[in-house]
Amino acid sequence: MTPFLVMDVLEKAKTLEAKGVDVVHLEIGEPDSDVHPFVVSAIKRAYDEHRTHYTDSFGDLELREAVCRLYKTEYGVEVTPDRVLVTSGSSPALLLALQVLCDVGDEVLVSNPGYPCYRDFALACHAMPKDIPVSAENGFQFDAKDVAAALSPKSKAIFVNSPMNPAGTLADPESLKELVKLCDANGTTILSDEIYHGLVYNGKKPHSILEYTDNAYVFNGFSKRFDMTGLRLGYLIAPKKHLRVLRILQQNLFICAGSIAQRAGLEAINLQLGSSAKAREFQRFQSAKCAEYDARRRFMLDRLSDLGFDVKVEPEGAFYVFADARRYTQDSLKFAFDVLNRAHVGITPGTDFGSRGQGFIRLSYATGIPRLREAFNRLAEF
Ligand code: PMP
User: Fold this and answer.
1) Is the Cβ–Cβ distance between 348 and 166 less than 8 Å?
2) Atom number, ligand 1, closest to the C-alpha of residue 164
3) Which of 92, 108, 177, 350 could lock 332 by a disulfide, CB 3.0 to 4.6 Å apart?
4) With bands split at pLDDT 50, 70 and 90, how would you rate the model's confidence at 1?
5) Which residue spans of the chain are classified as CATH 3.90.1150.10?
6) CB-hemisphere CA count at 13 Å for 23?
């Protein structure tokens, strides 16, 4: 496994801060909002109701039913609660799926650049990550001919991530359908990471892989859309044929997700889908948050362009911009540390996301506009 370079940047930033330096953090991939007060009330209620015990290993039935309602409302797909497995964040769900699918030496196809942990989860399961190049030209999403060229009899799984980290770009429905066709023909399972759904701008709508096939894994969670990173709550939706083996793995490896966090998740979905005055207030908060992310996104794109960073494909989801910095550097890691040491702005080197991220930087706009303005003023002086 390779180190998570963004953590190296963050740790260095913390040492500077300990010496009294003011660092603007554009490296971190987590929302700046706290858990919503309505959800906090649900957490307190859960303690009062003594919900501090193990749950079913697949999670509270009420929460799993709520996930089914969410997928029905947002994508029109029918999912039964037996297919929903609740986990402590979506990360353990990635591990469970790969444990089910992969034998030693099998291939797991991932985009380069792409979310770095996919590769490392594959390695943790003794499988081999295999890169498929993506670039600005195809919106950092897969091109069918590159997928076709990469697929082999050993390709057990392929990760698709839309909106994708690091570029915030979406896969279009046609390319998802094409991917389903190619993977079905090859016996490869699609692993669709939908963690950034709910954070999409420009009037765009993300599509779930379940609109096109039931023979896929979906990963989703509460960290990004519902500002619950530290509560550690996520889930997977699995094909029916794997439910028994998933249960055995979950029972042995994790037992179940946190019971209190599960009540928080249930409240968040109920509020997101509800029609009470409280639910409408929550929905207004969620919409205002997206509008704020969108304003930051546009601010960041404008300022990056003023400074001569090239963003060929506009991000339309998540809270990241993946900018081409090759006008200034051929070495993203050195550049990130130079920017941190001299301008006191934390950014993520593109190489964190694979070799094809060389020369790129990822900037997160999960930070308010006044701090973004400060960061860009510093970068302009740099
Ligand atoms: N997928 C992607 C693409 C991510 O960026 C992250 C978090 N950085 C995760 C999954 C994992 O999130 P969590 O475990 O908090 O649900």
Assistant:
1) yes
2) 3
3) 350
4) confident
5) 5-30+278-381
6) 27
CA separation for the pair 50, 177 (Å, rounded):
46
Could you check whether the bond before residue 92 is cis, i.e. omega within 30 degrees of 0? no
- CB 165 near ligand 1, within 6 Å: yes
The DSSP string of 324-370 is E-TTT-S-HHHHHHHIIIII-EE-EEGGGG-GGGTTEEEEE--S-HH
The stretch 269-284 carries a mean pLDDT of: 98
Q: Is 29 touching ligand 1 by the criterion CB < 6 Å?
A: yes
195 alpha carbon to ligand 1 midpoint, in Å?
A: 7
Average pLDDT over residues 270-293: 98
Ligand 1 atom closest to Cα of 318? 5
Q: Which CATH superfamily groups domain 5-30+278-381?
A: Aspartate Aminotransferase, domain 1 (3.90.1150.10)
Q: Residue 10 Cα, ligand 1 centroid: separation in angstroms?
A: 17
Q: Is the C-beta atom of 167 inside 6 A of ligand 1?
A: no
Tell me the pLDDT tens digit for each residue of 240-258: 999 999 999 999 999 999 9
Q: What is the pLDDT of residues 311-331, one digit of tens each?
A: 999 999 999 999 999 999 999
Is 37-273 CATH 3.40.640.10? yes
- pLDDT digits over 188-230, tens only? 999 999 999 999 999 999 999 999 999 999 999 999 999 999 9
pLDDT for residue 4 is more than 90? no
